[in-house]
Write a structure and sequence with these properties.
Elements (H helix, E strand, L loop, with lengths): L6 E6 L5 H11 L3 E3 L3 E2 L14 E2 L2 H9 L3 E7 L2 E6 H9 L3 E5 L2 H10 L4 E6 L3 H11 L4 H15 L7 E4 L3 H15 L7 H16 L1
Parallel strand pairs: 1-7, 1-8, 2-7, 3-4, 8-9
Antiparallel strand pairs: 3-6, 5-6
Helix pairs in contact: 1-7
The protein binds guanosine-5'-monophosphate.
Length: 209
């Protein structure tokens, strides 16, 4: 049976550790491909061009929108973020599950275009723990931390639209649970339409003999 890749959207408030979850999935399992987004935000210390993001200016980003090169894009905290189309299509065709680490507006646009996409939301154990992690990261100014906490409160309104929530308390547990949920989702009939069609045809053939 030819394996079909699925789109896996992973969202979560800034500071939830969703980046570490995604990193763990990529390191521990071969079935995944990670989509690298395009953004107009400035690189943070340690971030690399083409690894963390493709860092571009607004003009270049708007050109990409015009050329229909993005599957989705959104504006988040005054910057554009978007998912390049080509890589995602290529990896899905090759049978990999493609991970999109994106925020909620993008997640909902993906669900509209790809109804079989799996939407996962990684949550912190509590709001206080989230603030502690954001401040502890030390890469953001207090104003940015405040902005991101307000944004988290807004984003929490949309969690009900996701398929699963996964608590990131212990990172290893969270990675394992995420992988299990993805593998279970891959077994649902809606995500295996061509296999079901194939086996139905074969059954008809064999029962005729
Ligand atoms: P950060 O600036 O912390 O790297 O990312 C800010 C937010 O943008 C995060 O919630 C991240 O998941 C989201 N994001 C990153 N890439 C994309 C993208 O391509 N599309 C959308 N819609 N959101 C993205």
């Amino acid at each position: 049976m030819k394996r079909e890749g699925i789109l896996v959207v992973i969202s979560g408030f800034a500071g939830t550790g969703k980046g570490s979850v995604v990193h763990g999935l990529m390191e521990q399992y071969e079935q995944y491909a990670l989509s690298i987004s395009m953004t107009t935000r400035n690189p943070r210390p340690g971030e690399e061009e083409g690894v963390s993001y493709f860092f571009v200016d607004r003009e270049r980003f708007e050109e990409e929108i015009k050329n229909d090169g993005l599957i989705e894009y959104a504006s988040y905290c005054d910057n554009y973020y978007g998912t390049p189309k080509k890589y995602v299509q290529q990896q899905l065709q090759e049978g990999r599950d493609v991970i999109l680490e994106i925020e909620i507006q993008g997640a909902l646009k993906i669900k509209e275009q790809f109804p079989t996409a799996l939407l996962l939301f990684i949550v912190p154990p509590s709001a206080a723990e989230l603030k502690r992690r954001l401040v502890g990261r030390g890469t953001e100014t207090p104003e940015v931390v405040e902005k991101r906490m307000r944004r988290a409160a807004e984003e929490a309104e949309g969690i009900g639209q996701y398929d699963y929530i996964i608590v990131n308390d212990s990172l290893e547990d969270c990675i394992r649970k995420t992988h299990e949920v993805i593998n279970a989702a891959r077994l649902t009939p809606v995500r295996n339409e061509s296999f079901i069609k194939e086996i139905r045809n074969e059954l008809v053939e064999i029962s005729r003999k």
